[in-house]
């Protein structure tokens, strides 16, 4: 269990881009299960007009990937992948992300992340995300890289 | 369509070829910068994916198509406040599905390569 307060200590992300609420299960170096509650009060919905339809309140797929990626980031961090001095975590790539059902406000996502491989400062993840046991989306592979902060200035993410 | 990105997209579509050029300017006022990150604004990679999804939505070859996957998204260089992002987008059939492929760049060169998958759901 990683509390919301501990998530804030581990991840550099803040409102409105801190998209993990709680970690309910974690095995460093292996796996992690995190919760993300989607609400109609998220800032993205503020710009919807009076005629917004169900399609418009769909949670953006981009943010689903971000939320799952932050869960992967938490697993990296508790697995000691940030031992490189002053390293920052970068989202390198994702492949084989498949959406099985739409996500709407009120849904509670359960991100299940497995660390599949670690090569130097690069960590590979796989897993899925469920809503009440039903698979919402699957992730074949996500790659996170830990690089010195200085490398980012040269824009090589 | 709900999006975390404030920037308006400019879309120039070549319908017969099923290609389009999408441009946007990433303003310093993008809401995501407040939290990504508080002391170092960097445009999230997923927001680039979001811009491709919105560009795809504006050029969709069949209104019944729905986004069903991100086959791949690779981030090459960081995007910062003030950057102009150019997206070269192209559609092609892929079996029963459609693929929307996009190459994104800024003045500093290639920024990302994204491949989306769409499926008729009705």
Structure notes:
- The complex is a heterodimer of chains A (157) and B (122).
- Chain A has 157 residues and is α+β, with helices and mostly antiparallel strands.
- Chain A has a single domain, classed as Thiol Ester Dehydrase, Chain A.
- Chain A is built from 3 helices and 6 strands; from the N terminus they run αββαββββα.
- Chain A has helices at residues 4-10, 61-78, 149-153; strands spanning 22-27, 31-37, 87-99, 108-119, 122-131, 134-148.
- Chain A has a 6-stranded antiparallel beta sheet with strand order 1-2-4-5-6-3.
- In chain A, a hairpin with a 2-residue loop joins strand 5 (122-131) and strand 6 (134-148).
- Chain B has one domain: Hotdog Thioesterase (Thiol Ester Dehydrase, Chain A), CATH 3.10.129.
- In chain B, 11% of the residues lie in helices and 46% in strands.
- Chain B contains 1 helix and 6 strands.
- A 6-stranded antiparallel beta sheet of chain B has the order 1-2-4-5-6-3, with helices on one face.
- In chain B, a hairpin with a 2-residue loop joins strand 4 and strand 5 (97-106).
- Chain B starts with 9 loop residues before the first strand and ends with a strand.
- The mean pLDDT of chain B is 96.
- The chains are: A alpha+beta (157), B mainly beta (122).
- Strand 3 (87-99) of chain A pairs antiparallel with strand 3 of chain B.
């Amino acid at each position: 269990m990683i509390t919301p307060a501990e998530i804030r200590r581990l991840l550099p992300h803040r409102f409105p881009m801190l998209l993990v609420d709680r970690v309910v299960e974690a095995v460093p170096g292996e796996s992690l299960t995190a919760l993300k509650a989607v609400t109609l009060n998220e800032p993205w919905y503020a710009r919807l007009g009076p005629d917004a339809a169900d399609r418009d309140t769909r949670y953006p797929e981009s943010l689903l990937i971000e939320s799952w990626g932050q869960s992967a980031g938490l697993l990296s961090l508790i697995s000691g992948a940030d031992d490189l001095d002053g390293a920052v975590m970068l989202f390198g790539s994702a492949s084989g992300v498949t959406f099985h059902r739409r996500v709407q406000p009120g849904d509670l996502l359960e991100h299940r992340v497995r660390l599949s491989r670690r090569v130097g400062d690069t960590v590979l993840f796989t897993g899925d995300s469920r809503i009440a046991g039903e698979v919402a989306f699957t992730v074949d592979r996500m790659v996170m890289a830990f690089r010195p902060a200085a490398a980012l200035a040269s824009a090589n993410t | 369509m709900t999006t975390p990105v404030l920037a308006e997209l400019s879309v120039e579509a070549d319908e017969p070829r099923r290609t389009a050029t999408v441009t946007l300017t990433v303003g310093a006022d993008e809401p995501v910068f407040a939290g990504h990150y508080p002391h170092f604004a960097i445009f999230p990679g997923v927001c680039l994916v979001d811009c491709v999804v919105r560009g795809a939505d504006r050029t969709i070859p069949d209104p019944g198509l729905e986004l069903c996957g991100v086959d791949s998204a690779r981030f090459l260089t960081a995007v910062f406040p003030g950057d102009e992002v150019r997206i070269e987008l192209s559609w092609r059939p892929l079996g029963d599905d459609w693929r929307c492929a996009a190459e994104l760049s800024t003045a500093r060169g290639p920024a990302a390569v994204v491949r989306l998958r769409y499926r008729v759901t009705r």
